[in-house]
Amino acid sequence: MKRTKLSIAVLFLTGSTSMFYSQTTDQDTIKKEKVIEGVVLQGSTNKGSESNIISLQRRAVEVIERVGSVQLEKQGVGDVSVAVTKATGAQKQEGSGQVFIRGLGDRSNSTTMNGLPIPSNDPLFKNIDLSIIKTDMIDYVGLEKVYNPNLWGDMSGANVNIVSKVYTGKPYFKVNLGSSVNFNAFQKPNFYLQNGPNFLGSKQINKPSNAAIAQYGYAFPTTWRNEDVNTPINSSLGIDFGRSFNVGEQGKLSLFGFGSFDNDYNFVEGPVRSADSGGSLLKDLYVQEYSYDTNSTGLLNLNYRINPNHTVKATTNFIHTTEQKLTFFEGYVRDTNEDRENETAFLRRAGYKTNDLWINQLSGEHSISDPFTLYWNAGYNRLDSRRPDRQQNISVYNNQTGIHHFVASNAGANHRYYDQLLENDFVGDLHGDYQINDQFKVTLGYQGRYKNSDFKATQYNFRVKLAQGNYFVTPDDYGTFFNYQNYQSGSFFDIRTFRGIVGSDAMALNPMYYESEVNNHAGFANVDYKAGDRFTAQLGVRYDHLKQNILYDTNIKSGKVEKSYAKILPALNMKYSLNDRQNFRFSASKTYTTPLLLELAPFEYEEVDEASFGNVDLNPSDNYNADLKWEWFPKRNELISITAFGKYIQNPISRVTVNSSANTVSFVNAGDSGAIYGVEAEIRKDLYNAGNSRIYTFLNATYLNTSQKLDADKVLNENPNSQVSVSFIKSEDKMQGASDFLANINLGWEQKWDRNSIDFVMSYSHISDNIYALGYDSKGNLVDEAINLLDATFRYKLSNGLGISVSGKNLLNPSFTRTQQNTNGDVIVKQYKKGLNAGLGFSYEF
Fold first, then answer.
1. First to last CA, the chain
2. In the chain, N or C: fewer CB atoms in 10 Å?
3. Helix-strand-coil split of the chain, %, nearest 5
């Protein structure tokens, strides 16, 4: 009989899901062929579609929670950090792209792209700032909150897996244009940024060479002057395209490309304070902060299907970001202007940060024989992260004389700071599946990672020599005092580093540094057991050997840290299907959490309102996890689920305020144990569905109860080298960073006719109070108060390929408030509003 090959992707999207049974959840597309009475059916699904996301969740052994590209487009979500917050139990840390999942923050989570770890773009964090990854270049974001041994073991909250887009469907080329405004920034009569960086973020500011400093002393390429920016309007430009090519009789090469540039102006203002244990203010300032960010991203994804049994994929992704912040503080600083009635402190802080992250991956999937499939994945990541030319100035205004003067006793009050982090990261994964029979499948694998980090920092402090009244200075441009001519005179100021005086001490220009090497080798094994159509179990174990060496010479001390850990990590995942639409799941596992590099390295990093330093005596935590979940799939696009979970943590790591005269924080194993338990609920439901019109909702909520033991004697005894000490207020408190209640509510309307469509989505989020840092003595915890967020997006797609979108972000414009909860009364230490954002976008696909 003559065979006819039909391409029927539509059939695969609307039914026949039994063809796609797979335990491997990180493949980019799901492709199968089936012969039915002489007809070969062939197709592929879009893994970012809502129906496919739910279908995979229903069938998988492991607990899978994903946010797909289709849902994100409807909500107008542009970056992965916001995408993750749409999942159950996740919250974004205010002021950064870091996320907390099930009450656990950056150090307790991990981030992978296509299953391989990727480095952080900031030495302060373990995970990459998810806000720099654009959702237009991904198929979906997966949250793996339940552990299985093919995941890297250093996690307790969740692993965030970003799956880059693989092209399927018809050839296309798409252009996206957009513009938006932050009303806080737009309404400012003058918008200021520091001198040096440019609009595109392409200009790199380099630290003056040691030879130039030695010859000229003052050899800085930028000024202290504030630059006035015209029309702070955000803009975005992006393109993406896809095409497939037949190669031979069976092969197909699919190409997906993405490139974009966008920028973002913001302005916030409000009070910043800090208080001692008695409630007396150390700082009482009013702050105005101008910020400007850029993001330039390029991605190329090649997927070569050699034949039905062999596929190879290559991905390269380059991300260049810049962040500028120019902040003005005005008010009272106890160590600067003790005469509060007659003097006012003026602080200027200009920060510039650049990141170049290059992610490269090559992977393959090979069906060697009917029962055996081999998977491999290798990656190389390169990071160049810099803080070039951070500037700080502090002067005091005498209200009686009308003259500004410097605080001569504090050389570091006026400084320029430069740092650079270079990382080379090599990662690999090799594993194989062997299907023994219909009931048993065995997986064996190896994963390895080698990462070297080289961090260098230099701070040039300007010590004022002249007595008050013998010079003139203005906060509008501190460069009228700090300049080449005044330095050369020898009378105005000298330049010092933490190693000595420039021009006098031979070691003065040697930078602070730490060098780190991390080796991680792991072997894992899984056995999948399937008893009929109802019960499936997966039992596995992983052995992790992790070694970290740090050599350091910083502004605190010099020395080395050698850490070595060997961990055995068992995991059990079970699924019982009551019927085709309902599942019960149970999972139990052990994982661990290692300290971050800057939580270990004794390097002091200073902000105006906070200083932090690493602790060489910090130890890892062991985590014991359990989940029980019920899920129901009423219809194709619908899901209702309830999950109960618990975590027991030995030696939890916390950010704490240490015993010191300054507002300084560090990191310690605060007590012997901590515990988290909670309940999650998720609903995806069509409220109205008639013809081509649909009103739907997807909502989730999480209740958390957290606690940890606090033991000051334990901290003192376990930190002999760092000599960190604390005085906890209580013997037990909540976990740092955990909110008691989280909720996301989304309401959408979808209308289709012919090839036109309308999508309107409103998204509401609630985050309850959470501890930013544990307090000490009678100085209370720093607590970020509850916040409510509301966004709305309207999208209109025409049959001719034109798309129009209108968005409103932060419509409620709530106040972000951080309080210090002292025993004698709360003190608001930070408060501001981010401002409403309104945007308009156009796209054209052809």
1. 40
2. N
3. 10, 60, 30
| DSSP-based three-state secondary structure for 409 | coil
Q: Residue 355: which residues within 8 A CB-CB, separation 6 or more?
A: 121, 122, 132, 319, 320, 321, 322, 383, 384, 385, 386
Instruction: Give the other-Cβ count within 10 Å of 331's Cβ.
Output: 20
Comparing C-alpha atoms, which of 442, 597, 631, 450 is closest to residue 530? Answer: 442
Read out DSSP for 344-400?
Answer: EEEEEEEEEEEEEEEEEEEEEEEE-SSSEEEEEEEEEEEEEEEEEEEEEEEEEEETT
Q: Which ranges constitute the DSSP H helices of 130-258? A: 183-186, 210-216
Return d(Cα 104, Cα 653) in angstroms, integer: 11
In angstroms, the Cα distances linking 770 to 470, 561, 645, 740 are 49, 32, 19, 7
Bridge partners, 818 (sequence order): 784, 830
Q: What is the pLDDT of residues 24-47, one digit of tens each?
A: 334 333 333 444 444 444 445 566
**Whole-angstrom distance, CA of residue 484 vs CA of residue 227:** 20
Q: How far is CA 178 from CA 239, 264, 288, 451, in A?
A: 12, 12, 27, 38
Q: Evaluate whether 302 touches 322 at the Cβ level (below 8 Å).
A: no
For the chain, how big is the Rg over CA atoms in Å?
A: 28
Residue 736 CA to residue 738 CA, distance in Å, equals: 6
CA distance linking residue 232 with residue 731, whole number of Å: 49
Separation CA 285–CA 273 (nearest Å): 6
The CA distance from 34 to 308, in Å, is: 12
Which secondary structure element, helix H or strand E, spans residue 84, and what is its range? Answer: helix 80-85
Task: Write down the domain spans for the chain.
Answer: 1-45
Q: Give the model confidence (pLDDT) of 693-739 as tens digits.
A: 999 998 889 999 999 999 988 988 988 887 788 888 788 888 877 88
Choose among 765, 734, 821: nearest CA to 103: 734
Residue type, 252: K
Residue 134 to residue 97: CA distance in whole angstroms:
12
Specify whether the CB–CB gap between 316 and 31 falls below 8 A.
no
Burial (CB count <10 Å: 0-12, 13-18, 19+), residue 681: middle
pTM of the model: 0.87
Q: Using one digit for the tens of pLDDT, what is the confidence trace for 625-665?
A: 999 999 999 988 788 999 999 999 999 988 887 877 666 78
- Please give the DSSP secondary-structure letter assigned to residue 475: T
